[in-house]
Design goal:
Elements lengths: L7 H20 L8 H15 L17
Helix pairs in contact: 1-2
């Protein structure tokens, strides 16, 4: 499908940030109406899990090792 363009450290960081944003949205106090932050967390979680970032493509960025 698509070649991987997200490297190991980048993937781990994306997954951790995604999980943190989703957790914040789920466990934030009821007085904070930031539930939309969880939806933003889905993007880095998916790009980290898939190892492919569509935003990197137009710029030719690759953080993974060349095979």
């Amino acid at each position: 499908m698509f070649s991987s363009n997200v490297g190991g450290v980048d993937r781990i960081a994306r997954i951790l940030v995604g999980i943190a944003l989703i957790a914040f949205a789920l466990f934030a106090p009821a007085t904070i109406t930031w539930s939309w932050v969880g939806w933003i967390g889905v993007v880095p979680l998916l790009t980290g899990a898939l190892g492919w970032c569509p935003a990197y493509m137009p710029f030719g960025i690759k953080t993974c090792r060349v095979k």
